# Entry
Amino acid sequence: MESEVSLYDRIGGAETISSLLDSFYAKVLADSELAHYFKNSPMDKLLKMQKEFFSAATGGPLTYSGKPLRDVHRHMAISKREFARFTEHLIETLKEIGVEEQASYEIISHVNLYADEITNDVY
Ligand code: HEM
# Structure
């Protein structure tokens, strides 16, 4: 039955998540409003954690082993506007790599659930 197929499998599993994250972070790092956050970050570890996170978030086989998102991002004081830009890059990447619209909506609404944990500003 359709409802038993995970979002992970519907979008193409590990391979899709891998190319998604590569293109997505290329966009984020090319965005001068966002890139400075990542200046001193270990990108290999970040991408590994993001792969786990997206796999877990879409019902895939990996478990997220990183720190709670609130703890990771709290000191960065990320604004709602920056969060929205980050999400826009994600939407664009999903479109570019051919993830179907319904699956993209599901991914974006999942990611938006973390907005309050990741942002830390008063507008
Ligand atoms: C839905 C949105 C987001 C999700 C799901 C997310 C998820 C993650 C994850 C899983 C990690 C790795 C945690 C670990 O190492 O244990 C991480 C790290 C990081 N995130 Fe995010 N993040 C989001 C939004 C953002 C935004 C908007 C920014 C900045 C504009 C940002 C900047 C960073 C940085 C700089 C690190 C690396 C921290 C370090 O140096 O180790 N994140 N994020």
